[in-house]
Amino acid sequence: MTDQRFPLPTAKGTLPIADSHLFPDLLPPEAASELDALFRRHLEPYVGVTDDGTPRRDLYRLDAAGTAPRAAVVAAEAYLDGLAPHQRIVGALPMDATEWRLWTNAVPTWHPKGMRLERLAESDRDRALAVVEASLSPAGYAQVRAAMALNANLGELIDDYRDTLTEFAYWFTVFGTPSADSPWGWQLMGHHVDLHCVFVGGQVVLAPVFLGAEPTTGTGRFEGVRAFDEETEVALAFRRTLDADRAGEFLMGPSLRAEDLPPELAGPWNGRHVAGAGGDNLVLPPEGIVAASLTADQLDGLVDLVRVYLGRLPPAQAERDLALVREHLDKTRFAWRGGHDDECAFYYRVHSPVLLVEYDNHPGVFLGNPEPARFHVHTIVRAPNGNDYGRDLLDQHYRLHHGGR
What we know:
Elements: E1 17-18, E2 21-22, H1 29-35, H2 37-41, H3 71-82, H4 85-91, E3 92-93, E4 115-116, H5 122-135, H6 138-158, E5 170-175, E6 184-190, E7 193-200, E8 203-213, H7 229-239, H8 247-250, E9 251-253, E10 289-290, H9 296-310, H10 315-326, E11 333-338, E12 346-352, E13 355-361, E14 377-382, H11 391-402
Parallel strand pairs: 3-5, 9-11
Antiparallel strand pairs: 1-2, 4-5, 5-6, 6-7, 7-8, 8-14, 10-11, 11-12, 12-13, 13-14
């Protein structure tokens, strides 16, 4: 299968990947070190993404407001009940398991726990996906499924890695005991799809989230499948409202071409984004224009962009999170790198005390484009200052109900 819209690989089969496993010992040392870094870091004491290494406190509020969909509990119970005992041993882990923080947007270099969807019977796989669907908004679930489908499209497009670039090469893990009252959650992990969903105190925490696609539009039997239109177009619309005479406040650089970037931002694996896998304790000083300094119309544009990412959550939780973001607009910054015409690649970041969003166009990993292009997108969402994986709310819950952990 070929498609003239996308460049085919310059060399096929050059990465040591087989059956959804990456063998780092067969990579050059520099690449192996970068791709395996997250595995080395996942046992470090958790701090969270911070401005300076010290989390801000009292940002997240635990209460019993019922924004968590009860349908997710029912779906998770049905999924677990359908698994064989040996499957539940590896597919259902304790709430405090270290595997929460063990994930990759690339291909794992370890043997993940959790059930690999394509190894499940179709009925069991449907029940696993029903948990994801019941936990998200319809738009959020549709985007996850589109990214999964586009992963398979990529394998067909390049006719390579056909045991890895598939629609269901993803590991699904339930943490804790699904309950309307006690904390629990799930992780879906694999290439271009990493979601961490925690239910605590009637709330839903969806962070970290990594969603991406290469390419972002389907071909062949995936014709009509699309991803990241809003993340791209809403951002461009907002960027075009920003005043040129304030570019020094928000523009990190005019180009994403490798020759125009510092070496640490020009690599093929992470590109410009800094908060991906292994970045749980990232220290990220705020950069960009302060949201509260924007005009009313510009601020509306930024809020519209934030809504795109929060819109993956159930509607009640999305509105709750948006209200929290609004409380911190004086500490929220927006930064952009690249152009803003109809074709050029770009990167942007929204950095709030309670929300971190990154969007990046990448060069080809499996496709052959050497420079970043619009048809390869990575997005990241985190809850800074200690609430990734719902950690801040979980700590509050355990102190309130169990005297701490």
